[in-house]
Amino acid sequence: MPHVTFIHGIGNKPEREQLRQIWLRSLAAAGGLDLGAEGVTSAMVYWADVLHAEPDPNVAAYEAAALDEHGVEADPAADVPTADSADEALFLAGIAAKLGGTLAAAELAAEPQARGTDLALERIPLPWPIKKLFLKNFLRDVHDYLFNADSSPRPGEHYKVRDEIRSRFVRAVKDAPQDDVHVVVSHSMGTVIAYDCLKNVADCPRVDALVTIGSPLGLDEVQDKLDPGYSRRDGYPDFRSSTPWVNLFDRLDPVCGFDPILANDFERGGVKAIDDVQVVNPGSWRHSAVKYLAQAELRTRLAAALGL
After folding, report:
1. What is the rounded CA–CA span in Å between residue 134 and residue 100?
2. Which domain holds residue 31?
């Protein structure tokens, strides 16, 4: 039977099975795509525990997408990572400048550029403490993965962040049924992890399709760390089928808003192959996974990729 592997993004999360059920319910809500009813199995690649001591207990707030009041997927105890080299300092400064600018721009009714759309964008300012907290958490998560930092979230546990998360993703792909369609749905920092494993980890099995939502893969600083397999001309991973890589973005999502279009950055032999799709998420916090999962565009493309 068809299978979907989910992988979450930055910040702390409810525990693995709770999070998987939240994503499934978000897809199915309001007459959407009910994977269980369609005979589609699923799994969640969970990595919040690599950086966080305990799961987020506020499941109801997460599922309700009330993240504007709930800390914006952030851990108040997180610290901005310390740069141990000039390379790390430049990386952090570049990301901070771009995301900081995007957080500011999200308060303006910017005109959409992608796909010739004429979607109205909402002007809802976010308080600076929320922006600062989110930026601090994003910097920590993306830095620790791409620089394979050390993490000791609990006494007696020690991880090399990129090594550990890569192993979890590859294990999940290997454990999935291999005799039917397999689609990866990834959010936020999870899109970087999924891409990195599918492109750069030799023993990671191929999948049929990749769906990225709210992805920071358009940032030059991130692309520069996607060694050894990344190049703009040949950055597209190999898939088991010709189903396109679908990338959904909201221009007021601070994670992807600086450069939301991926087709020109991850070409297949010099040819654009990614289907970039603009959506408009409701409310002031546009990066929420559950808001993307509620989008009809996502549900339609995921159903098509699964052959439903």
Report:
1. 10
2. 3-306
The one-digit pLDDT tens for each residue of the chain (308 residues) are 899 999 999 888 999 999 999 999 999 998 999 999 999 999 999 999 999 999 988 777 676 654 444 345 555 555 556 666 777 777 766 766 667 656 654 444 333 443 344 444 333 445 555 566 677 788 889 999 999 999 999 999 999 999 999 999 999 999 999 889 999 999 999 999 999 999 999 999 999 999 999 999 999 999 999 988 899 999 999 999 878 899 999 988 888 988 899 999 999 999 999 999 999 988 777 888 999 999 999 999 999 999 99
Give yes or no for a contact between 7 and 44, defined as CB atoms under 8 angstroms apart: yes
End-to-end CA distance of the chain: 11
On whether the CB atoms of residues 124 and 283 are closer than 8 A, the answer is yes
Integer-rounded Cα Rg, in Å, for the chain is 18
Structure tokens at 95: 């990301």
Strand 3-7 relative to strand 150-151: parallel, antiparallel, unpaired?
unpaired
Tokens of 308: 């439903």
- pTM for the model: 0.86
Q: Which two tokens stand for residue 200?
A: 């750069």
Give the span between the Cα atoms of 206 and 196, in whole angstroms. 12
Q: Decide the pairing of beta strands 159-160 and 150-151.
A: antiparallel
Instruction: CATH number of the domain at 149, please.
Output: 3.40.50
Handedness of CA 83, 89, 92, 96 (dihedral sign): positive
- Split into its structural domains, the chain has a count of 1
* Neighbouring C-alpha atoms within 13 Å toward the C-beta of 24: 20
- Say how many CA atoms lie within 13 Å of 105 toward its Cβ: 19
